[in-house]
């Protein structure tokens, strides 16, 4: 339980460090946390979060179960109010529905049969589109996630992995500028997980979509992320990949040794045996 504010780890950029000089033009962040405390009723979860996510970045959130990754995402989405500190949510992004979210679990009860097609189209709620645009977007996202042949099936009868793909398609159909995804590859077979990752990497590289990705898969981090945030003991250590993904910091986060090698271009490679 967190009684007091956790001290940020050494090397954690403070809000002051991350702010550029007054005369430098500043890209408006998508979301920025300044000394934010988060929790539920009497349960403190995160003590003092400083984090700034800018357009075009690919973030991975990492940490053991129950350390507050989903909680931080709820605050990002405006679904959880901070107990202290400020959360800036860029109105150009959040106010215009340019954010899509793929939840860790879908808290819905199957009531009525819903086709995969209908389910994915619910992702367009609040977005103005013509019938023809809807048809095109639907065809594109069905193809991206590999569900074209299942479009008329009942969503509730899909397997867990197929449901995950449909959830991703529902997020993508909005054509988001920011995609926030909570463990999209958990429980997926190898091919399905690869499909999801390929789609995300393509969204990021080709369409400059900003990605916030919660994962327990360290290989994904080495391969795709530009930035990472480590969650442990109520603190969040965040920054550029090479600053955050070190043997010491990952070891502290997970409580077990995690081998990290520096790969080409200074990119950390995680889980590679160190000679
Ligand atoms: N609605 C809630 N009410 C009370 N406590 C909650 C609630 N949601 C989460 N918690 C608690 O907050 C803490 C952080 O939970 P959170 O879901 O953010 O963890 P997480 O890092 O996403 O974990 P996981 O890797 O298992 O998904 C946990 O101790 C959890 O039990
Ligand atoms: Mg979670």
Concise summary:
Helices cover 32% and strands 23% of the residues. The protein is built from ten helices and eleven strands. The site of adenosine-5'-triphosphate has 13 residues, from β2 and α2.
What would your notes on this structure say?
By secondary structure, this protein is an alpha/beta fold. It has a domain at 107-175. The chain has ten helices and eleven strands. It has helices at 15-18, 69-76, 91-94, 116-121, 131-145, 160-172, 190-207, 218-224, 241-244, 247-254, and strands at 31-40, 43-53, 58-62, 84-89, 99-102, 178-182, 210-214, 227-232, 235-240, 260-262, 268-270. Strands 5-6-7-3-8-9 form a six-stranded mixed β-sheet, sandwiched between helices. A three-stranded antiparallel β-sheet has the order 2-1-4. The chain has a two-stranded antiparallel ribbon with strand order 10-11. α5 (131-145) packs across α6 (160-172). Magnesium ion is lined by residues 69-70, 104, 182.
Largest sheet: spatial strand order: 5-6-7-3-8-9
Helical content class: 25-40%
Task: Give helix and strand order, one letter per element, not per position.
Answer: HEEEHEHEHHHEHEHEEHHEE
Helix/strand/pairing category:
alpha/beta
Radius of gyration: 19 Å
Largest sheet properties: 6 strands, mixed
Strand content range: 15-25%
Name the ligand types.
adenosine-5'-triphosphate, magnesium ion
Low-confidence stretches: 1-20
Number of helices: 10
């Amino acid at each position: 339980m967190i009684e007091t504010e956790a001290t940020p780890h050494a090397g954690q950029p403070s809000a002051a460090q991350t702010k550029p000089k007054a005369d430098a033009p500043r890209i408006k962040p998508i979301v920025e946390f300044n000394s934010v405390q988060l929790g539920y009723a009497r349960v403190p979860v995160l003590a003092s979060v400083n984090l700034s996510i800018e357009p075009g970045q690919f973030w991975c959130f990492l940490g053991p179960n129950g350390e507050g990754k989903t909680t931080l995402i709820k605050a990002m989405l405006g679904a959880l109010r901070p107990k202290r500190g400020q959360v800036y949510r860029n109105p150009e992004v959040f106010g215009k529905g340019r954010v899509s979210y793929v939840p860790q679990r879908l808290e819905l009860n199957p009531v009525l049969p819903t086709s995969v097609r209908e389910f994915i189209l619910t992702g367009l709620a609040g977005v103005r589109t013509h019938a023809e645009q809807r048809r095109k977007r639907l065809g594109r996202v069905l193809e991206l996630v590999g569900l074209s042949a299942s479009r008329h099936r009942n969503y509730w009868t899909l397997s867990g992995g197929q449901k995950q793909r449909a959830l991703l398609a529902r997020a993508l159909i909005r054509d988001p500028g920011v995609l926030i995804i909570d463990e999209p590859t958990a429980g997926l077979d190898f091919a399905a997980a690869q499909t999801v990752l390929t789609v995300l990497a393509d969204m990021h590289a080709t369409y400059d979509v900003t990605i916030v990705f919660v994962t327990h898969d360290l290989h994904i981090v080495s391969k795709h992320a530009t930035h990472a945030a480590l969650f442990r003991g109520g603190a969040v250590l965040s920054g550029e990949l090479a600053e955050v993904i070190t043997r010491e910091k990952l070891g502290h986060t997970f409580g077990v040794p995690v081998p990290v090698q520096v790969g080409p271009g200074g990119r950390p490679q995680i889980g590679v045996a160190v000679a």
